[in-house]
Amino acid sequence: MGKQKKHILLFHLLFLHLLLAGVQVVESKSHHHLHGQNQVHGFSKLFAFGDSYADTGNSAKSTSDSWHEPYGITFPGKPSGRWSDGRVLTDYVASFIGIKSPIPRQWMKYGPKLVKFGINFAYGGSGVFETSTPVNMTVQINSFQQLIQQGLYTKKDLYSSVALVSLAGNDYNAYASRNGTAEGLPAFISSVVNQLALNLKRINVMGVKTIIVTALPPLDCLPLRTLSSSFQQCSETDNAGVIFHNQLLQQAVDKLNNQSKDSTFLTLDLYRSFKTILNQTALPAGNMKFDDPLKPCCMGVNSSYSCGSKDENGVRMYTVCKNPKTAFFWDMFHPTQEGWKAVRLLLDSYLFPPKP
Ligand SMILES: *[C@@H]1O[C@H](CO)[C@@H](O)[C@H](O)[C@H]1NC(C)=O
Ligand SMILES: *[C@@H]1O[C@H](CO)[C@@H](O)[C@H](O)[C@H]1NC(C)=O
Ligand SMILES: *[C@@H]1O[C@H](CO)[C@@H](O)[C@H](O)[C@H]1NC(C)=O
Ligand SMILES: *[C@@H]1O[C@H](CO)[C@@H](O)[C@H](O)[C@H]1NC(C)=O
Ligand SMILES: *[C@@H]1O[C@H](CO)[C@@H](O)[C@H](O)[C@H]1NC(C)=O
Hints:
The structure is a single chain. The protein is α/β, with parallel strands linked by helices and 356 residues long. The chain has one domain: Rossmann fold (3-Layer(aba) Sandwich). It has 10 helices and 8 strands. It has helices at 3-21, 89-96, 137-149, 155-159, 170-177, 185-205, 223-226, 239-259, 270-278, 337-351, and strands at 45-50, 103-104, 118-120, 161-166, 210-214, 264-268, 298-300, 318-320. The strands form 2 sheets. It has a 6-stranded parallel beta sheet, with helices on both faces. Strands 7-8 form a two-stranded antiparallel sheet. Helix 6 packs parallel to helix 8 (239-259) and helix 9 (270-278) crosses helix 10. Bound molecules: 2-acetamido-2-deoxy-beta-D-glucopyranose (5 copies). The site of one 2-acetamido-2-deoxy-beta-D-glucopyranose has 2 residues, from loops. Residues 178-179 line the site of one 2-acetamido-2-deoxy-beta-D-glucopyranose. Pfam families: Lipase_GDSL (PF00657). Residues 1-28 form the signal peptide. Belongs to the 'GDSL' lipolytic enzyme family. InterPro entries: GDSL (IPR001087), SGNH_hydro_sf (IPR036514).
C-alpha cells in the first residue's frame, strides 16, 4: 500500500474515532496490509448487525409496521422496511465511508452481484438475547459466517470492511416484559454487555477489522417514555441503567482494543448525540433545530394503535405530522431521517466546529 493511501486511511480511522466516539479517542491503528480497493476512504463494504436502528428491510413484511405506510414516505417514497420516514443509521454510516448502503440480507435471493457493498443482517426488534423476534444477534452473525464459509467474500474483502453493530435496548424491553426486577437489572446489564462483546469479537475473528458499536441512546427520552409528560421531558427512569450499560460497553471496547493489534473497535455515542439534539438550547449549529424535539411525527390515535396501523376495516388509526423534517422522532422509538441526519451533522461538528 502506498504511503499516501495509508495516510488517508489513518486520517480516516482517526476521523471515525472522533466522529463516533465523541468522548473516547482510542489510539489509532493502521491497516498495514490493505490492498487493491477503490473507495476514496479505503473501506469497500459495510456489514450491519443488530436492531431497527440499523435494519434497512429485513423485518418480516407480514408483521412489521415498517412495511406499512407512512414508513418510507420521505425515502425511498414508499415503505422499504426501514423504521423511519426515510434513511436510518446504516445508510448514514455507509455514506460516511463512501459506499452505497448495503442490501438487506433477504435481498440476496435477487442475485449475488448486489452484495458488492456488503450485507445488512440487522433485524428490527432484536437484541443479543431473546426478544420478540426470533432473529437475535447470534443468528445474524451465524448467517454472516455461513456466507463467508461459502466463499462469498475473500479475506481481503473482509479486511477492508466495516461492521456496524446496533443495540438500542430491545433486551431491556424484553427484561421488563418478563417482569425482571430492579435488583436483578445490574446483573442483566452485565450479561447483555458481555454477550455483545463476545459478538463483536466473533465478527472480528471472522476477519472484519473495523467494528463500530452503538452506545445506548437515552431510553428515557424516547417518545414511548415521554408520552406521559406530553413529550415535555425525559422521564429519567431508565437513565441510571443506560449509563451503566454504556460504561460497561466502553470498558469492553477498551479491552477489545487492548487485546488486538490490527483491529479497531469504536463506540458510536448515541447517548451524547441524542441528548445534545434534544436539548435544543445547547446546539452548536442552526440546522438541527426541531420545533418540539421529544414529540414524534407519527403515532397511533391511542395506546391500542401504533404508527402505520389500521383497524379491521382498513381505516388508518394513526396521525402523521405535516412535515417529517420538523421532527426528530418518527415514531415511539425511532428518529426521522432528519433526526439521523442531525446525529450525523452533530458528530461532524465535534470535529469541525462552526467558526464564530
Ligand atoms: C439466539 O437464538 C437462537 C435460536 O433461537 C438460540 O439457539 C440462541 O441460544 C440464541 N442466542 C442467545 C445468545 O440468546
Ligand atoms: C408481569 O406482571 C403483570 C402484572 O402483574 C402480569 O399481568 C403478567 O402476566 C406478568 N408477566 C410475566 C411474563 O410474568
Ligand atoms: C489497556 O492496556 C493498558 C496498558 O497495558 C492498561 O494500562 C489498561 O488498563 C488496559 N485497559 C483495559 C481496559 O484493559
Ligand atoms: C441543556 O443545555 C444547557 C446549556 O448547556 C444546560 O445548562 C442544561 O442543563 C441542559 N439541559 C438538560 C436537560 O440537559
Ligand atoms: C382507541 O380508539 C378506538 C377507536 O376510536 C376505540 O375503539 C378504542 O377503544 C380506543 N382504545 C383505547 C385504549 O382508548
